[in-house]
Amino acid sequence: MAHLARQESNKPVLIGQISETEVIPKKFLEAILLDLKKLGFVNSKQGKGGGYYLARDAKDISLASLIRVLEGPIALLPCVSKNYYEKCDDCPNEGVCTLNKVMVELRDSTLEILENKSLESLK
Protein backbone atom coordinates (compact mmCIF):
# COMPACT_ATOMS: atom_id res chain seq x y z
CA MET A 1 0.00 0.00 0.00
CA ALA A 2 2.86 2.39 0.77
CA HIS A 3 4.31 1.61 -2.66
CA LEU A 4 1.00 2.54 -4.31
CA ALA A 5 0.75 5.69 -2.19
CA ARG A 6 4.13 6.85 -3.51
CA GLN A 7 2.99 6.75 -7.14
CA GLU A 8 2.52 10.04 -8.95
CA SER A 9 -1.12 10.88 -9.67
CA ASN A 10 -2.33 7.42 -8.67
CA LYS A 11 -0.59 5.74 -11.61
CA PRO A 12 -1.32 1.98 -11.86
CA VAL A 13 1.57 -0.30 -10.89
CA LEU A 14 2.14 -3.88 -12.04
CA ILE A 15 2.18 -6.59 -9.38
CA GLY A 16 5.60 -7.71 -10.60
CA GLN A 17 7.07 -4.26 -10.03
CA ILE A 18 5.66 -4.03 -6.50
CA SER A 19 6.80 -7.59 -5.75
CA GLU A 20 10.34 -6.90 -6.90
CA THR A 21 10.71 -3.47 -5.29
CA GLU A 22 9.18 -4.42 -1.94
CA VAL A 23 10.59 -7.99 -1.91
CA ILE A 24 7.19 -9.64 -1.48
CA PRO A 25 6.46 -13.02 -3.12
CA LYS A 26 4.26 -12.36 -6.16
CA LYS A 27 1.58 -14.98 -5.33
CA PHE A 28 1.29 -13.68 -1.76
CA LEU A 29 1.01 -10.10 -3.04
CA GLU A 30 -1.66 -11.11 -5.56
CA ALA A 31 -3.79 -12.56 -2.75
CA ILE A 32 -3.37 -9.45 -0.60
CA LEU A 33 -4.21 -7.08 -3.46
CA LEU A 34 -7.32 -9.10 -4.36
CA ASP A 35 -8.51 -8.85 -0.75
CA LEU A 36 -7.76 -5.12 -0.68
CA LYS A 37 -9.66 -4.68 -3.94
CA LYS A 38 -12.72 -6.51 -2.56
CA LEU A 39 -12.59 -4.25 0.50
CA GLY A 40 -12.38 -1.06 -1.57
CA PHE A 41 -8.81 -0.02 -0.77
CA VAL A 42 -7.41 -0.53 -4.28
CA ASN A 43 -8.66 -0.72 -7.84
CA SER A 44 -7.10 -2.35 -10.87
CA LYS A 45 -6.83 -1.54 -14.52
CA GLN A 46 -6.25 -4.22 -17.13
CA GLY A 47 -4.26 -3.98 -20.32
CA LYS A 48 -1.46 -1.66 -21.36
CA GLY A 49 -0.69 0.84 -18.62
CA GLY A 50 -2.63 -1.30 -16.19
CA GLY A 51 -1.96 -2.47 -12.69
CA TYR A 52 -3.14 -1.66 -9.20
CA TYR A 53 -3.74 1.80 -7.76
CA LEU A 54 -5.31 3.28 -4.62
CA ALA A 55 -9.10 3.54 -4.67
CA ARG A 56 -8.95 6.59 -2.36
CA ASP A 57 -6.43 9.28 -1.55
CA ALA A 58 -3.65 8.02 0.71
CA LYS A 59 -4.57 10.73 3.24
CA ASP A 60 -8.04 9.16 3.58
CA ILE A 61 -6.80 5.66 4.48
CA SER A 62 -5.96 5.30 8.17
CA LEU A 63 -3.27 2.89 9.27
CA ALA A 64 -5.78 1.47 11.77
CA SER A 65 -8.18 0.47 8.99
CA LEU A 66 -5.38 -1.19 7.02
CA ILE A 67 -4.05 -3.13 9.99
CA ARG A 68 -7.54 -4.36 10.85
CA VAL A 69 -8.19 -5.76 7.36
CA LEU A 70 -4.70 -7.19 6.87
CA GLU A 71 -3.83 -8.40 10.36
CA GLY A 72 -7.03 -8.45 12.41
CA PRO A 73 -7.51 -6.90 15.85
CA ILE A 74 -5.25 -4.09 16.97
CA ALA A 75 -5.68 -5.02 20.64
CA LEU A 76 -3.17 -7.54 21.97
CA LEU A 77 -5.85 -9.47 23.87
CA PRO A 78 -9.32 -10.36 22.58
CA CYS A 79 -10.94 -9.28 25.87
CA VAL A 80 -9.97 -5.64 25.20
CA SER A 81 -10.67 -5.54 21.47
CA LYS A 82 -13.27 -3.01 20.31
CA ASN A 83 -14.14 -4.85 17.09
CA TYR A 84 -13.20 -8.46 17.84
CA TYR A 85 -14.12 -8.80 21.52
CA GLU A 86 -14.04 -12.26 23.09
CA LYS A 87 -14.44 -13.03 26.77
CA CYS A 88 -11.21 -14.03 28.46
CA ASP A 89 -11.25 -17.68 29.55
CA ASP A 90 -8.66 -17.06 32.28
CA CYS A 91 -10.41 -14.19 34.01
CA PRO A 92 -13.76 -14.57 35.79
CA ASN A 93 -14.24 -10.79 36.18
CA GLU A 94 -12.68 -8.40 33.66
CA GLY A 95 -13.75 -5.44 35.79
CA VAL A 96 -11.19 -6.26 38.48
CA CYS A 97 -8.48 -7.66 36.21
CA THR A 98 -5.42 -5.42 36.48
CA LEU A 99 -3.95 -6.72 33.22
CA ASN A 100 -7.18 -5.84 31.42
CA LYS A 101 -6.91 -2.22 32.53
CA VAL A 102 -3.33 -1.94 31.26
CA MET A 103 -4.25 -3.60 27.97
CA VAL A 104 -7.20 -1.21 27.46
CA GLU A 105 -4.83 1.72 28.02
CA LEU A 106 -2.33 0.24 25.56
CA ARG A 107 -5.09 -0.38 23.00
CA ASP A 108 -6.41 3.17 23.32
CA SER A 109 -2.94 4.71 22.94
CA THR A 110 -2.17 2.53 19.93
CA LEU A 111 -5.52 3.29 18.32
CA GLU A 112 -5.08 7.02 18.80
CA ILE A 113 -1.80 6.89 16.89
CA LEU A 114 -2.97 4.54 14.14
CA GLU A 115 -6.30 6.29 13.56
CA ASN A 116 -4.54 9.65 13.25
CA LYS A 117 -1.86 8.41 10.85
CA SER A 118 -2.76 7.85 7.24
CA LEU A 119 -1.17 5.87 4.46
CA GLU A 120 0.17 9.21 3.26
CA SER A 121 2.45 9.35 6.32
CA LEU A 122 4.31 6.29 4.97
CA LYS A 123 5.33 7.95 1.70
UniProtKB/TrEMBL annotation:
The name this protein goes by in its record = Cysteine metabolism repressor
Is DNA-binding included in the keywords of this UniProt record? yes
**What keywords are annotated for this sequence in UniProt?**
DNA-binding
Question: Which InterPro entries is this protein grouped with?
Answer: Tscrpt_reg_Rrf2, WH-like_DNA-bd_sf, WH_DNA-bd_sf
Q: Where is the signal peptide?
A: none
Species the sequence originates in: Empedobacter falsenii
**Classification via PANTHER family:** HTH-TYPE TRANSCRIPTIONAL REGULATOR ISCR, WINGED HELIX-TURN-HELIX TRANSCRIPTIONAL REGULATOR, RRF2 FAMILY
Q: By its UniProt entry, which Gene3D superfamilies does this protein fall under?
A: Winged helix-like DNA-binding domain superfamily/Winged helix DNA-binding domain (1.10.10.10)
- Highest taxon above the source species: Bacteria
Output a single Gene Ontology CC term carried by this record: cytosol
Molecular function as annotated in GO: DNA binding; DNA-binding transcription factor activity
